């Protein structure tokens, strides 16, 4: 109970629900439907990573210092801020038929539409609490994830664009003008990018492994209206040095220039060194450090207002430690849990910035700051 006697500098909201773990991604083989050569098994996006993160928050005692918030199911009108009714109807039809692939590699079970509504509703609850000042910041420990979902297509395990809907809600209900996203999931935040590509009021930033998922997505040439999209594709094998350089050279300057009134972190943990779907090398302390950088910008420009939405991360062993580090940092907990994997991962070869990583980051910098 490392956090039993913690004091927290901030009030951090945590949106959680047992029902998030009941979204059924079926017995797929990794991310493929079973065939005669693909043995049924476990889908990569299953409850375990998220459940274990929740368990660790509880076991360390940090849970008791968070402001727990229950999600509501989002209405069609709220989801309609991003998705047409036809998309909701399509998901309803697949779920009513007993489940199946709802789009591009995105399985859903019979209850998944209702649970996906709660993922959106969880982000809405978090945005409302942060904007009202009831909490300083918030973490939404939801499934299914959201950052790949397009308005008319479920994609990459994502049914609805949770974070994007939360941003539209913040603009509509709370009069927020400028919102920035910092997406450090190892995959490109293509859905968020597509939804706001023509909208200079939302700066979408994505750090991701070059050409991972979706294929041929996330290049530095996609700049959006009014320079409102920033992609930082990082070479496979990028670790602590590359991510820190990317933040200092590009992410932080872009946020400083944009001056957001709210920051949303589509927070994936699949850039960790132990993840089966990416081959980046981050340790929990890197996620803590990135959180601290975003918080410093948020403190300066928007009274610390941050909403983090849980995205990918497929190591059931390691996601909990990375997630705990983020929530510890958001809450300003006086104690820090010592990640048993930290020494092991930070001493991997290749954690230092390499020349090809520096060149990739410089290219992103030049694309975003052309002069
Ligand atoms: Zn991902």
Quickly describe the structure.
This is Histone deacetylase-like amidohydrolase. The protein is α/β, with parallel strands linked by helices and 371 residues long.
List the helices and strands and how they pair.
Elements (H helix, E strand, L loop, with lengths): L11 E4 L31 H14 L6 E3 L6 H4 L5 H12 L3 E2 L5 E2 L3 H21 L4 E4 L21 H13 L4 E5 L6 H7 L5 E8 L19 E6 L5 H19 L3 E6 L16 H19 L3 E5 L8 H13 L10 H5 L8 H14 L3
Parallel strand pairs: 1-2, 1-5, 5-10, 6-7, 6-9, 7-8, 9-10
Antiparallel strand pairs: 3-4
What does this entry look like structurally?
The chain has 371 residues and is α/β, with parallel strands linked by helices. It has a single domain (12-368), classed as Arginase, Chain A. The chain has 11 helices and 10 strands. An 8-stranded parallel β-sheet has the order 2-1-5-10-9-6-7-8, with helices on both faces. It starts with 11 loop residues before the first strand and ends with a helix. The protein binds zinc ion. Residues 43-329 form the Histone deacetylase domain. One of its GO terms (molecular function) is histone deacetylase activity.
């Amino acid at each position: 109970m490392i956090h039993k006697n913690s004091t927290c500098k901030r009030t951090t909201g945590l949106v959680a629900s047992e029902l998030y773990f009941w979204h059924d991604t079926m017995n797929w083989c990794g991310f493929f439907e079973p065939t005669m050569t693909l043995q049924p098994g476990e889908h990569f996006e299953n409850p375990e990573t998220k459940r274990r993160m929740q368990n660790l928050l509880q076991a360390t005692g940090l849970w008791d210092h968070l402001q727990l918030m229950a999600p509501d199911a989002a209405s069609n009108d709220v989801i309609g801020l991003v998705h047409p009714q036809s998309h909701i109807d399509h998901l309803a039809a697949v779920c009513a038929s007993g489940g199946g692939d709802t789009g591009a590699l995105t399985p859903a079970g019979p209850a998944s539409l209702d649970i996906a509504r709660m993922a959106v509703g969880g982000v809405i609850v978090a945005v409302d609490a942060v904007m009202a000042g009831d909490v300083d910041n918030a973490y939404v420990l939801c499934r299914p994830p959201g950052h790949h979902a397009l308005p008319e297509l479920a994609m990459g395990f994502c049914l609805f664009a949770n974070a994007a809907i939360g941003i539209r809600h913040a603009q509509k209900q709370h009069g927020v003008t400028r919102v920035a996203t910092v997406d450090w999931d190892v995959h490109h935040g293509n859905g968020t990018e597509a939804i706001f590509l023509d909208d200079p009021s939302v700066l979408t930033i994505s750090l991701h492994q070059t050409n991972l998922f979706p294929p041929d997505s996330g290049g530095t040439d996609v700049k959006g209206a009014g320079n409102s999209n920033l992609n930082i594709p990082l070479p496979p094998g990028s670790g602590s040095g590359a991510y820190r350089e990317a933040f200092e050279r590009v992410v932080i300057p872009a946020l400083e220039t944009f001056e957001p009134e709210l920051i949303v972190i589509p927070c994936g943990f699949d850039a960790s060194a132990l993840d089966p779907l990416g081959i980046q090398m981050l340790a929990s302390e890197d996620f803590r450090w990135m959180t601290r950088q975003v918080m410093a910008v948020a403190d300066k420009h928007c009274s610390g207002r941050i909403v983090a939405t849980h995205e990918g991360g497929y190591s059931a062993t390691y996601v909990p430690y990375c997630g705990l580090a983020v929530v510890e940092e958001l809450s300003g907990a006086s104690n820090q849990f010592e990640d048993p994997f930290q020494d092991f991962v930070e001493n991997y070869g290749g954690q230092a910035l390499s020349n090809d990583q520096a060149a990739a980051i410089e290219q992103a910098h030049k694309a975003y700051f052309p002069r």
